[in-house]
Amino acid sequence: MSSSNEESDEALSPNGAAGQGQQVLQLQTESSTSTPPEAGASSQQAAQVGDTSRDAKPPHGMADQSDLSKVLQTLTMILEKTCDREASAAAEKLSNSSPKLRPPPPFQPQMNFELWETQFLTYVEAHHVPTPQQPAVLLSMLAPECQEFIFNNSLHRESIQTALKSLKDRFTDSGTEHKSYLELAVAEQLNSETTQEFFDRLTRLSKSANLKKPTAEPLVRARFCYGLRDKGLAERLILLGQENPTWSAEDLAKKAREIAGVKKLLSSEVTPVIRAAAPDRTAELEARIRELEKLVQQNQTTQSSDHNSKDFQNFPSQVPPVNLGQSGQYKNSSRWSKSPKRCNRCSDHDHLTADCPKPPPSNGVGAGGRPTGMAPMMEIGTITVWKGGFGFIQPSQMPDSLFCHYSSLDNELKQVANSHQLVGTTVQFLRRADPGHKHDRAVGVCRYQMPVRCDQSWAADTPVESSMFVQLGIGDNKVIACLDSGCNASVMGTKVRDQLIANDPINNTFIPARKYQAATAFNGTSTQILGTLHCEVKLGKISQTHVFLVTEGQVTDVLLGIDFMRGFNVNLLVADGQVTVAGEVVPVIEGDRGVFQARRVTAACNVQLPPRSETMVPSRVIGADPGSPGFLGTKLFCSDSEFFVAHSVDSVSSTGHVLVRLLNSGNQPSEIAAGQEIASFQSLRVGETISHTALTEKDFSVSSSKDLGTKLAKLPDPDLGTASWLKKQFKLEESTLSETQLTITLKLLNYFLSAISKSDTDLGKTHLHEMAIELNEPTCRPISQPSRRTTPAQKEFLDRHINQLIEQGVIEESNSEWASPIVLVRKKDGSQRLCIDYRSVNKVIKPCTFPLPLIEESFDSLAGSKVFSSLDLTSAYWQVGIREQDRDLTAFTCPQGTYRWKVVPFGIKTAPANFAKLMHKVFRPLLMRVSLIYLDDIIIKARDNDEMIVHLALVLWQLKKANLKIKPSKCELFKDRVRFLGFVVSSQGIEADPTKIDAVRNWCKPTDKRQLLAFLGFANYYRKFVARFSVIASPLYSLAKGSSKFCGSNITTEHLKS
């Protein structure tokens, strides 16, 4: 032990191994530079030199390296131990110094997960819980139900972040945002809440509703002001907000705390503690009060002796006498409380100053601490109750009711009150906040005079020209909306809501109101709020989610309020008639002219419209200049009418009249009253040409198609979104179209947009044909087969697919006695396809035949064509219905139940013939001359691109008339070669499809007659491309003939390759 320690100490000492190593190196250097020993040296000296050289210079330096490595290892071990001791000491010191937090309560499903998650992460971070131990700590802080969820999903093996995210998704309500938004919109201060607690609750609700700051800020600010219990404080805050428009909601909350604190301080009584702290000051004040009381009593005695007037005898003193009493608290004397009242502002005796209808003086400070020089805030409301000399007013902007006395009415309303006709009258008034009573007071009440306000007043002689309308994009729908800067919230009618939900029920979500809520219009009328619609709105280049209030009785389809303008950064340039969104100008209905410049047309006299006839009605144009030309159309903002207006161009007469052609299509006569709105008049500029864009059946006939290209060029342009979608779906940028041809094509496709499917579920439904299924024997016994076994994965697929088919409206539940089993077939991409085994049903169905077009004749008609297009229908069979009485035959059974088809299913043997019959009926005028039809494959031919545009329009017109839709992603337009019926058609001729040739080359060797006949049938389809086909295929036909046993070994590879 001592020797090892000595060695260790020697190794660490400066003169130890390291020093010896330096001496060794020094000896080596000296020995290498010294001269060799003389020859005459003795042998002893030579031996001594040899021993010294061996000690100083080991072979190859191995001894030096070994000593150095030992030293380095020793130093490394010492440093590691030192670092470990310091780290342990630092961790122990940090642990002892860190605060010991109380763990959060175990999480229950009904708790707020976000708040609990914050508490949990704070606890874990404060206690420095190691990462591997965090899942165990999380489990210990969960309720049993939540622990079960963790174990069932194996989340205890995942990271803490993954586990918390899964818990949030599982135990957080998906509808929290919608509920929080509705709660925020109607929030009011609770009795137990302070102003700060009320503001904090509004802030939490805005965050839970996931509102962005530009949307949340004005809403929180408005609800904080209008939801306060103290209406006097609310009025003060509203005025402060008007004076300081840059103040945020937090600034108003801070101001509310200051005002509430001052009120509390002023209203608090002097406590014994304060009195003890300042006894001299209290005694001085009490003495001063007793002195003032004596002076007041002397003044009253003098007034009563000098003036015998009744008025002065009943007039109370300006300073009420006080009685300190035994308790030392101030009390009003009974004489003061019983004295008759008199207004100090107008000297009337029927009311007090607070109820005076006259405004306060212009200088000084009025009641409530508001400067009287400031214009008082006038409110609008409706008298709901009136009995005797008092009643109640319901304000239009605030939910509370205000007390109103007879003395607060103006002379006109007093006369109305005497005749008991005040209830229902819309009035304007000033609010007198009275926190000590249940209801505030209304003073200065007079009848409400509606101001003139653009088109919303709908005065008889007001043209509709000051409102601005824009086109909104909501999903695939285009909606006309009115910009209204006087509306706080955006409002939508029920008709538009129903249309949006029907087109896209997933992205357009309607949430019904949980309790009765009403919105007040500018004219004072109220309407019920049915709920809110959440949808994705696009205006200009901005697209974001917006919330609309849904009401009934909307004049316009959609009204865009202040909340929309703030969220989309909308700026109204009224002088220029422009609207900007985020600095970019957006069109205001068809460019610089639109609905907002149209004027209303009313009937000039009473007119009776006979049934099924057209009548010329003398009418008056509101606000039009005499002699001005214009376009007469349907009346504004109304699509449903009992009569039709013939569109025409006319000039206004010198008396402001025009003639309107009205058509009564009903079987009963219709009455038009004088002054009834019947049409609209849109002024035209001098020299302006109206493009004729209303195309008719005659325009799309083959004989009149020469001028169709010119008419198509005058069609309106699609909006940017639609144009981009059309280019992408039809791959038009890959075509050889010129810029002009591309523009006309986009106009054409936009015109026939209703014949183009927006998605795989967007199907047409033709009215030209319904498939009938007839049995060979009408008394045939129904065939019912049991359902086949399915795996859990297949059941999951069936759940989704069946629900999708029901939503599309192609199947329905059935109690049919017929039932066929389903078969799930796997596609090439691995997905599954639902098929139905109708083999047993097909045996008892009467066949239906319809001749299919000959392929040879179809190809012969393509001679001379250089441009081709092919169209493909979206789920072609599903666009054709089945007769109601025949649907039971298509019933099928699956684990989800029994269903039947409402449209033509795949597998019924009469389906191809019925569909061929429909296509022949639809395209009969165009067959062979414009297009070729083979079942659902449509090919269009033309000599150049211009002719192709016209032919494409003719085909789309026929599809639109039949209510059939094409799938754009499977269509090819303006191609020099297209695939059709297994062939490639081009200007050079017809050739076999290369993919079909590869299929023949890779055909597996047949093992029975059936496979051989299938191969021969496939090869025979292309026989005209194979020279001497009959000679080459004769050996194979010989094997397929006769009843001899098939021997696959007789077929060689050479037979197939030839």
Automatic annotation (TrEMBL):
Keywords: Endonuclease, Hydrolase, Nuclease, Nucleotidyltransferase, Transferase. Residues 16-28 have a biased composition (Low complexity). Residues 1-68, 297-369 are annotated as: Disordered. Residues 297-317, 324-337 have a biased composition (Polar residues). The keyword Acyltransferase does not apply. It comes from Macrostomum lignano. This is Reverse transcriptase domain-containing protein. PANTHER family: PROTEIN CBG26694, PROTEIN NYNRIN-LIKE. It holds the Pfam family RVT_1.
